[in-house]
Amino acid sequence: MTSPLLQVNKLSKRFETGYKGFKRTYNQALHPVSFVLNRGETLAIVGEAGSGKSTLARILVGAEVRTTGEILFEGEALELRNLKQRCRLIRMIFQDPNTSLNPRLTIGELLDEPLKFNTDLDVQARKAQVIDTLRKVGLLPEHAEFYPHMISEGMKQRVAVARALMLNPKIIIADEALTALDLSVRSQILNLLLKLQKEMGLSYIFVSHNLSIIRHFSDKIMVLHKGEMVEKATTENLFNSPQHEYTQRLLQQQDLLNHKRG
Q1: pTM for this one?
Q2: Contact predicate 63/9, CB 8 Å
Q3: Please, what are the domains in the chain?
Q4: Residues in Cβ contact with 247 at an 8 Å cutoff, skipping those fewer than 6 apart
Q5: If 0-12 CB within 10 Å is exposed, 13-18 middle and 19+ buried, where does residue 204 land?
Q6: Residue by residue, what is the 3-state secondary structure of the chain?
Q7: Which end of the chain has fewer surrounding CB within 10 Å, N or C?
Q8: Residue-wise over 55-81: b if at least 16 C-beta within 10 A, else e?
Q9: Calpha distance 174→60 (Å, rounded)
Q10: Residue 225 to residues 29, 35, 52, 127, 228, Cα–Cα distance (Å)
């Protein structure tokens, strides 16, 4: 039996908040969580602000150090791989391309950066990969010469997707990456991500508070509440038969929102 692509065992995070008397005090941002992610699969992590979902995403991508637990990639502890290898395996798409894309760099320079720092490719090979990746996300080679302020919001998010693809990762984590987009652009980016998943065999971890976004996109869902995992199920089971009171409340809130918009 092959091991899952990613296996997370009892991962937790606590932050030091100061002292009470002579005793250190902590905030438990994430209680121990465990899950697996298989090849070509999409896991959604949902919960309101402060649920611990972004903390979990940051630990997985290496931007935050875990307090306890282990992360196994293809059966091997992730920390046994160096930072460059980790950068290649798991990449992130951030919520707002306006803040995550450096306005002083051209799009070509933005996409070249990960290659420059994490590969031994020469200038010509890097340029060829930048152009190839721009095409993959539905942009033109000439967009490499543009600056972020010269393109639309939807195009900026395509650049953010392209940057996540630059090192041919196995897993992409999208942290609220579609929330700020209008509906038509959102569906375009979702379709792009599904197409890339099919072509490249990518696995996704989608971090969101919006259940309607991930309903038609994810294979399974994990629900976090105040740092604790309260429910984990296939997407179909979670929507048809939510077990936890908090999940039921999230679904009701989403139904109300959709009804108001409709």
Answers
A1: 0.91
A2: no
A3: 6-260 (3.40.50.300)
A4: 223, 230, 231, 238
A5: buried
A6: CCCCCEEEEEEEEEEEEEEECCEEEEEEEEEEEEEEECCCCEEEEECCCCCCHHHHHHHHHCCCCCCEEEEEECCEEHHHCCHHHHHHHEEEECCCHHHHCCCCCCHHHHHHHHHHHHCCCCHHHHHHHHHHHHHHCCCCHHHHHCCHHHCCHHHHHHHHHHHHHCCCCCEEEEECCCCCCCHHHHHHHHHHHHHHHHHHCCEEEEEECCHHHHHCCCCEEEEEECCEEEEEEEHHHHHHCCCCHHHHHHHHHHHHHHHHHC
A7: N
A8: bbbbbbbbebebbebebbbeeeebeee
A9: 12
A10: 10, 16, 7, 44, 5
Residue indicated by tokens 């652009």: 185
CA distances from 168 to 82, 85, 116, 146, 178 (A): 16, 11, 14, 23, 21
Read off the pLDDT of residues 32-66 as tens digits, 9 standing for 90 and up: 999 999 999 999 999 998 899 999 999 998 889 99
For residue range 116-156, what is the model confidence (pLDDT) as tens digits?
Answer: 988 899 999 999 999 999 999 999 999 999 999 999 989 99
Q: Which residue do the tokens 């391309």 mark?
A: 97
- Single-letter residue type at 184: S
User: 91: which 2 tokens?
Assistant: 């990449």
Tokens coding 177:
């990456």
C-alpha to C-alpha distance for 101 and 11, rounded to whole angstroms: 30
